[in-house]
Each structure stands twice: as structure tokens, then as C-alpha cells.
Amino acid sequence: MEALLRWAAELGVSDSPSPDSSAANNSPASCLGYSLAVADFPDAGGRGLAAARDLRRGELVLRVPRAALLTSDRVMADDPRIASSVRAHQPRLSSVQVLIVCFLAEVGKGKSSVWYPYLSQLPSYYTLLATFNDFEVEALQVDDAIWVAQKAIRAIKADWEEAAPLMKGLEFKSKLLMFKSWLWAFATVSSRTLHIAWDDAGCLCPVGDLFNYEAPDDDTSSEDEDTAEVTNCQQKNEMPGSSERLTDGGYDDAKAYCFYARRNYRKGEQILLGYGTYTNLELLEHYGFLLSENPNEKTFIQLDLDICSVGTWPKDSLYIQPDGQPSFALLCALRLWTTPASRRKGVSYQVYSGSLLSIENELRVMKWLIRKCEETLRQLPTTVEFDESLLIFLNKIKKSTNCILDVKQSGFEQEFAVFLRFHRVELNCSAHSKLPARLLRSLERWELATQWRCKYKKTLTKCISYCKSSVHELSLQQNQQ
Fold first, then answer.
1. For residues 430 and 144, what is the distance between their CA atoms, to the nearest angstrom?
2. What's the confidence (pLDDT) of residue 176?
3. Res 28: pLDDT
4. Total-model pTM
């Protein structure tokens, strides 16, 4: 890490408020120290960036000049051979495919690459959905999630096959031509790139990609701060376009990627950025993690076509919220759907305004949701209680130095045996047997899949409770009429 920070400082990366003050505030051996410090947060994303001093919301905390951004145009400008080969294939390749090829080309150069101090610090593996094997995908249990994972894997394999002629023409080493290398490079690009206006693929941002994620919400707007200062910070923070993946920074007129504090921070606190609004499944797909509490989570249940088409609500707006309540659109759609077809036109205005049609209609909606959620839970192979126990076991077995004994005492011998058979592994019968690295990585993905499905089931359980409570209150109102 020290080598990376020293290299970044040489390229002009700085956590000082202005380029002129960077030399005075930072050690020549590091680009950090004035506003930020690298720290470990075991329960909140692992390695990240902490406040080196008290910070105010909107304050500039890191500046990464364009010269330090790894982009496809930068790689091609430095290597005409890569540029000419890419141009010959570019009409058939996406910008993401081009960036992955350029990235792998630099990886192939080893220590001779100008980016080596950065490349050598990248993770050796990722936990994005596309990296899940068949066992781990099936562990998601929910059909929609399994479909998303399988679709992602198919798309990445297709991209790799399309880019293979270009990589062979550039005489990549055999290891870099393998799908495994392409998948690793794709995961790097997917989970670490930042938005830039001139390339849809984005850029890899050394040091800037050390920030961990926090879901965007409205809480920070309620802090007591100087209005003029906040307005100024927000103006600095404004980014063109609506498709940017990072909401707390951007490439600005100073020809640098600038990052800002999204709220007030005390010294030692982890600085978090909002990459955008994602559900847990989307976080798992694009970044390889999920949140224990995600205000943007959406839980979808299977809906008949006539429910989805009864109104004009988009299908992705028909979901259950983290607190178990149906979304506004789902509630409205069900109110309209449970109304006889001959009467729907007459009540559509009330429905679209969110008004309750009648106690009888609302009871039908709530009872339907109860049956649907209970049916969905029954169809899944395991219960919330089983999943919670399994998560305790998986967390323990990852740290175990006596794997065989811990498995026997866990009550999950059958599940673990299926896991080992899938990987074609037999445990060493020695008294102190640790799992090999590749199995530990698979356990991590199995754990993520179990966490996701457990949260899915808990939301359905909350929905059942909410609806039963509503039925009780509505029935009391009905009896009082």
C-alpha cells in the first residue's frame, strides 16, 4: 500500500484542499495524510479510507488528476500497437470490452507497466454474481435472482468470446486469454470504475476506489450546517448527466476526479460514498457485496400478467419495501385488480391518487398478499431459521482450524457434503484440517447467497405481519360500521 500511495503522490493525487497546498500538507511518500488515511473496517467493508481530521459535509477530500486515471484512451495513447489493434476491432466491441482488453494488456506487462503499483494492489478475486458457480447460484433459491446470475454469466462469456481475436492478435499470454482472467478483469471494471463523460466504460481511479459504499438517503440533508457553505459544496459536487455511478464526486473542470464528504465526519470515522441507488441483488451483481440494512431494497414476488397490466405502473415499481409494506404502485395495482373489471374505469382516479376504495377492497388486497407471501415462502427449500443457523455455521467454518470436527458438530454435515462433492474435494482426516483457499472463496460466495435469500424471506415475513395487522384493524372498522 505504501508503494501505491507514493506512486499516486508522484502523479499528483492529493487529499489536500488545493493542488498548491499538497506539498505542504502531505508527506512526499504518500498522497494521503491531510484529510484521509487508509484503515481497516472489519465489519464495514474491510479496507477503506478514514477521516484524518474532522471533515464537514461537501468538503473536498481527494483529488485524482486525469494523468492518474486508468482509461482505455490513456492506455492506447501510451501504446500505439494496442491502439491500432483496438481500432481494427472497435466497431464490434463495446467500450467496456475495450477497457478490459486495455486493462489486461497492462496486467500482462507486469512490472514494466506504468500502472504496476496500482495493479499489484488489486484484489486477487471478487464475489460478484458473475463469479458464482452453479452451487452458489442455486443457493440463491429465488428464481428471479438465479436468472439474474445466470444472465450475467452468459453475457460475460459472450463478451470474452467476442474479444478473444483481439487479445490473440495482441499476443496475450495464454493465462490472460483464459475466461478466468477475463472474469477477474470484468469484476475489477464492474466494481471499481467511476463515471467519466468521455467513455461509457468509465475509468479506474487509483486511491479513489478505496472508498467503501453507503446507500444514498435523505438523512444528510437534515444536518445543521451553514446554508451558504452547503450550497457552494453542492454546486461543486454537481455532475452532468443522469447516468453517473458515483453521487459524491465527479470529473470536474480542473481536469481531476474530485471526491467530497457526503456528511460531517469525525476524525477516525470511515468516509463512505454513495455509488448510486441499488437493491441488494444489484449490489451483489455489480459490486459483490450486500448491505445488512439497505433503504433502497426491493423484494419482488411473482405476479400474474393481469396484475402487472391492470394499470400503467412499471413492473419494477411493484415490490415489497424493506419494512414489509407493499410499494405505492403495488398497493394501487392490487386495489384496481381486485375491483371487478366493469367498475375499474370508474374508480381508477381514486386508485391512482392512492385512496382506499373501501374496507372490503382493502381486506381482499391484504388477504391476497398474505396468501401470496406464505405460498412463496412454502415453495422455497429452506426457512429463515435454517438460513440463520447456516450463516452461523459458514462464518465459523471459514475461520476453523479443525474443519472436520466443526462440521460434525454443526448439524450441517449433509449440506457441507454436497458442497464438497460439487468441488470434488475430500477433507483431509488429520486433526487440524483447514480448507484450501479456493473453497474458502466459494464459502464466502455461498454465505452471500444465503444472506441474500434470508433477507428476502424476512421481508416476506414482515409483509405477512403487516398485512395481518391491517386485516385486524380493518375488520374492527368494518364491525363498527
1. 41
2. 97
3. 65
4. 0.88
Residue 105 binned pLDDT confidence (cut-offs 50, 70, 90): very high
Residue 121 amino acid letter: Q
HEC letters along the chain: CHHHHHHHHHCCCECCCCHHHHHHHCCCCCCCCCCEEEEEECCCCEEEEEECCCECCCCEEEEEEHHHCECHHHHHHHCHHHHHHHHHHHHHCCHHHHHHHHHHHHHHCHHHCCCHHHHCCCCCCCCCHHHCCHHHHHCCCCHHHHHHHHHHHHHHHHHHHHHHHHHHHCCCCHHHHCHHHHHHHHHHHHHHEEEECCEEEEEECCCHHHCEECCCCCHHHHCCCCHHHHHHHHHHHCCCCCCCCCCCEEECCCCEEEEECCCCECCCCECEECCCCCCHHHHHHHCCCCCCCCCCCCECCCCCHHHHCCCCCCHHHCCECCCCCECHHHHHHHHHHCCCHHHHHHHHHHHHCCCCCCHHHHHHHHHHHHHHHHHHHHHCCCCHHHHHHHHHHHHHHHHCCCHHHHHHHHCCHHHHHHHHHHCCCCCCCCCCCCCCHHHHHHHHHHHHHHHHHHHHHHHHHHHHHHHHHHHHHHHHHHHHC
What is the average pLDDT value for the chain, to the nearest integer?
A: 88
Determine contact, residues 4/117, Cβ cutoff 8 Å: yes
Q: Give yes or no for a contact between 63 and 38, defined as CB atoms under 8 angstroms apart.
A: no
What does the angle CA 160 – CA 164 – CA 170 come to, to the nearest 5 degrees?
A: 135
Per-residue pLDDT tens digits for 144-202: 999 999 999 999 999 999 999 999 999 999 999 999 999 999 999 999 999 999 999 99
Cell of 381: 427449500
Model confidence pLDDT, tens digit, residues 257-310: 999 998 899 999 999 888 788 999 999 999 999 999 999 999 999 999 999 999
102: pLDDT strictly greater than 90: yes
**Residue 284 and residue 129: Cα distance in Å, rounded?**
6
